[in-house]
Design a protein that fits this description.
This protein is of the alpha/beta class. The protein has one domain: Rossmann fold (3-Layer(aba) Sandwich), CATH 3.40.50.300. The chain contains eight helices and five strands. Helix 1 crosses helix 8. The longest helix is centred in the middle third of the chain and has 25 residues. The chain starts with a strand and ends in a 7-residue tail after the last helix.
Length: 207
């Protein structure tokens, strides 16, 4: 039996990192086999690509380049880390995946969704998550959460850009309700964590 592939999505400042950490802790306590990774990144090559993508000094980066760099980073992560782990029966938790590209570069940047889907199907060998947790929150509310950290190139975009991203995520969830589950991220950390576990635990199995 293969492992389950679980991804976390949401606007910047939605609390993904916190919730991923809590799920990791729960998996450890329950002795559920898991591998935790992130996007862009997760491998030596992918982390180098991440540095280029998020470097605020690259203001001249065109949007097609941005989308292709994400896909390249993703291809390496899937081929080197995710597919082998799943084949060994290990559950993979990934902080962001293809849905982020569709929301950020598709809805946010206005690039063609069909082209982005085709590029990412090639990059990922058409690997789709078994479950995607979408942490939904008003982008204006996330400004306060992000005020105490240095913003990267995408986080520095105008608020309108982040509203487009949120709309994109919600549209994706509407189109794939069986896979993408919306969790209201404005609630307390504990409430959000409990709701997430209710979604994740039924599909994974402890050794």
């Amino acid at each position: 039996m293969g492992g389950k592939f679980i991804t976390f999505e949401g606007c910047d400042g939605s609390g993904k990192s916190t919730q991923v950490s809590l799920v990791k802790k729960t998996f450890k306590e329950l002795k559920i086999p898991y591998l935790l990774t992130r996007e862009p990144g997760g491998t030596r090559i992918s982390e180098e690509i991440r540095n280029v993508i998020l470097d605020e000094s690259y203001k001249e980066m065109v949007w097609r380049t941005e989308a292709l760099l994400y896909a390249a980073s993703r291809a390496q992560l899937v081929g080197q880390i995710i597919e082998p782990a799943l084949a060994e029966g290990i559950n993979v938790i990934c902080d962001r995946y293809v849905d982020s590209t569709l929301a950020y570069q598709g809805y946010g940047r206005g690039l063609g969704l069909e082209e982005l889907i085709n590029i990412n199907n090639f990059a990922t060998n058409s690997l789709k998550p078994d479950l995607t947790i979408l942490l939904d929150i008003d982008p204006e509310e996330t400004l306060n959460r992000r005020s105490n950290r240095k913003a990267d190139r995408l986080e520095k975009e105008q608020l309108d850009f982040h509203y487009k991203i949120r709309e994109g995520f919600l549209e994706l969830a509407k189109n794939e309700p069986q896979r993408i589950k919306i969790v209201a991220a404005h609630k307390s950390i504990e409430e959000v964590h409990k709701e997430i576990l209710n979604l994740i635990l039924p599909i994974v199995k402890a050794k």
